[in-house]
Structures are given as C-alpha cells and as structure tokens.
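If you are new to this repository, start here. Below is one unmodified record pulled from the training split, so you can see the exact layout before writing a loader.
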Amino acid sequence: MRRLAVTLSSGLALLSSQLAVPATPGVYLGDLSWPEAEARFKQAPLVILPFGPAAKEHGPHLPLNADAKVMEYLCDQAVQSLPVVVAPPILHGWFPAFRQFPGTEVDDGTVFIKYVDAVARSLIGSGARRIVFLNTSLSKASGLPLAMVARDVREGTGTPTLVVSWDDLETDEYRALETQTQGTHADEIETSIQLVLQPELVHMEKAVTDYGREPGKAYAGYRPGLFSRDPRDPAYSETGVFGDPTKATVEKGLKALAIMTAEWLKALRGFAETPMRSGK
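And here is the target side for that same chain:
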C-alpha cells in the first residue's frame, strides 16, 4: 500500500506540474461571500455547472460515487488552472440505463431538465457570462437532457453555453490505453481512474469481465443501452459491468486522467473566447 501511495503521489504531482498556474485562479462559488461572488461573476470568463451522479451502479467492485469523483477532479483542475467560477454540483440526474440497480436518480427527465434549467438561469441572473455544463456521464445518456437545457438557455438568454461530456474528452490516445475487447462502463479505464482517485474503495478482488450478451449493431441510429436485471431481456446484466476491469492499473488511470484534463482545459480555454451578445 505504501508503494501504491508513493506512485499515486508522484503521478498526480506530475500532472499538476504540467498545468500552468493562472495569475487569478478559479474559485468555488460556495466558498465566497456574496460581495465576492458578485465581483467574480463580473470577472470570470465562464461559470461551470458540474453534473456527476453521486450514486449510480459501477459494478460489484467500484463505489456508486465513481462519476462524482471524476467530476470533482476535473473541477479541481479547472480551478487550479483558469479563472473560472465552479457552481455547486448537481449530484442527482437522469440515467434510466441503470435504474434497475440500487442508486438514486431523478427518474422523470422533464423534472431533471427543469431543475438544471432553473439552476443555470439563476447563475445567469447572478452575472454568469458563459455556462459550461460538465457531464461525467456520456453524451447520449445524461448528456441528452443537459444539451436540451443548453440549447434553451442559449436561445432564451443569449448566454453562450457548452456541454462537455465524458466521451468528449476521450481521444485516440485515451482509447489506445485499452487492452479489453470492448467496454463502456465500470471497465478497464474507468476502474483504472478510480484506482487513482479513491483506491481504498476499489475492490479488485470483485472485478469481473462482462461483455454482456446483447449483440452489437452494424447499422446507423441511436439504440439506447440498458443494464437489465431481467434474465429474459437481451440486455440482461448480472454485474452492471460492460468491459474488463480486471485489466485496470494505476498507470493507465494516471494517463487517462492526464488526457481528459488536457482536453477539458482546452475546451474551457476555447469556449472562454466565444463571442457574447452585445451588452452582456
């Protein structure tokens, strides 16, 4: 365990050393007084509204909070690197693919949309000039309702919006880290990341390889995925895993986080230059 701690410390120190420290670092909105918040809203090029499920199944070997921990990590990287404001996170969301397993969600998509929309418009009312929705789920899962909010907020308020989902941060280099046949959930890379962020809650002795039994598709279109508890369903999943987490390592987790962080900061820097409506 001591050797693992040293490895983690060294790896994370390397990541931090690669990030330039801004003249004015970012802040968490909740840490400010209201006069400080008012001033920072006027100065900050963008405000991040993070979403990461705090209780969603990730197989028998990972904690339910896996997505939320990645969200926290990416927000920390943004605060350390750019003069952003990070709003309090949204920890409950809409993810029907996992509904048959223990966890918590807002199962009515319209309620979730209204909730996120209200929070975003509140931030704009307080002075936010650009809104970034960080989604540590997939773009065609929880990213769908977030994208609807982003579109409506953009049209209704004139405020530029951006949705950044987990899969937006995956590059060819990221995918090259995989040795599993295929995977999307609680798999080799996601487990590797958790070995970095919270190794004490990862139980590798319980990790199992599971590629499901529903065949892949070789045709166009969006087919919603499902982790079903019904043995009669082609999408039946005994484990809630899709991939091979037994291949996870700390080294892969460090590399994956470095790639995701670089893409995340690149997106924020680019979006910070987005033109705004006159008068904002």
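Two things worth knowing about this chain: The CA atoms of residues 188 and 255 lie 13 Å apart. Residues 250-271 form the longest helix (22 residues).
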